Amino acid sequence: MTLLRHPERQAASVRQKHPSGGQSGPSRPPNSLRKFNAVPVVPTRQPHTPRNKHLPPQPQALARERPQASIPFKTSSHTKLHQRLLKLPSKITQAEREKREREAASRAAGMGSFKVTRISEGPVKPASATPDETLPLAWVDRYPTHRGLVESMHIFRSGADAAPGVIREALGKALVHFYPLAGRIAEGDEPGAPAIRCTADGVYFAEAEADCSLEDVRYLERPLMLPKEDLVPYPGDDRWGVEPHNTIMMMQPGPLPELPVLALDYIVLDFPTSYIDDLKKQYKAHSGKFCSGFDVLTAKLWQCRTRALKLEPEAEVKLCFFASVRHLLKLDRGYYGNSIFPVKMSAPSSKVLGSSIMEVVDMIRQAKDRMAVEFFQFAKEETDQDPFQMTFNYESIYVSDWSKLGFSEVDYGFGPPVFAGPLVNNDFIASVVFLKAPLPLDGTRMLASCVTKEHSEEFARGMMEDLS
């Protein structure tokens, strides 16, 4: 986490780092679904559990012995993919740190930008004792292509003077309940399967100040337009003795998949709630059924992107997003691990283009309806297909919905953020993230890195064509 502040003007920016999907932590679903087994963490416990002691007795449904997951991890075929997903060196030396700072200063000078000075850095540890144990990750988090870290930026309009102390104290208290986040990722009992070592070593926290206010840089409304290295500090383990969150070395080398390198444009579009509600009403009139705002925006996205790509009629276009399976697992209260399963669909480009938006919504709804059956088939090993096997080509697009994660409601005592979103700009995954639009806007913001420059104008025009 990094806090950036101006010493005189009230402007603060907070960046958090968390595992993919915006949710983190170990988990243990019901015994019948052994692929998803892990130890539960219930954050509603009392915060003064002595070290070397485990949590209070678990509910009987979760306390039974669970066999280890039997799915092969396919690490060799995903090694390079995981390296590119993680994009974190195992150790950053002082020389490398200074080199990055010089490069950032050079870029800033060329842009006529501003100076940022690091004030302090170091670990924030849990405020009181936490269990000393090693917890297995849920299976989905052990899968090689899902081990990357997702970085996010949270920007606040005011509170710079109070923010360092408030956030540091709040973080220390939160880590008592969510103590695995203060641990380190290490190799577990199963070869190639990372686990969480609950060491209470803490999370990285840095404080810096700039000779400008966030208002001067428009609150970093388009953060990915800036070099990521200028925004994200990388703690060197030689600086404060931290075993890095890096599982690359746990994977066996082998044949590397060929991955495309896509020069994707970064596009930000906002959709008012009234516009989304109108599309949902149209779908109700079309089918007699309800749909979500995610459904209609994703349908429009898939069709507009397919049109912009100008593919051959028979070319297969693919859409993928992850859906929650919490309702299928019937998890106990307090579970906060990942419970997701991929929803995939594929169709000839001619079908996507020849359908109405409402018919594309039908395709998405049908895929979501199939998800429960596909999930249980996979969990019970009744299928040979691997639903987590991903395709990375220009015809495929991946969509994430962050609009309900609650980031926009986080308030440390100086108001909600003016922006909260991911810092993800992979060069080999065409992706879109939906966020709750920042105040004072009312609606959904789309962060898209899904088309190259030659297709971006037509894609954006198609997405906005029926907005009043």
TrEMBL record:
Protein name, entry field: Uncharacterized protein
Molecular function (Gene Ontology), one example: acyltransferase activity, transferring groups other than amino-acyl groups
PANTHER family the UniProt entry points to: ACYL TRANSFERASE 4 (PTHR31147), ACYL TRANSFERASE 9 (PTHR31147:SF34)
Provenance organism: Eragrostis curvula (weeping love grass)
Coiled-coil segments on the chain, per record: none
InterPro entries, per the entry: CAT-like_dom_sf (IPR023213), Plant_acyltransferase (IPR050898)
UniProt region (Disordered), positions on chain: 1-65
Family statement drawn from the similarity comment of this UniProt entry: Belongs to the plant acyltransferase family.
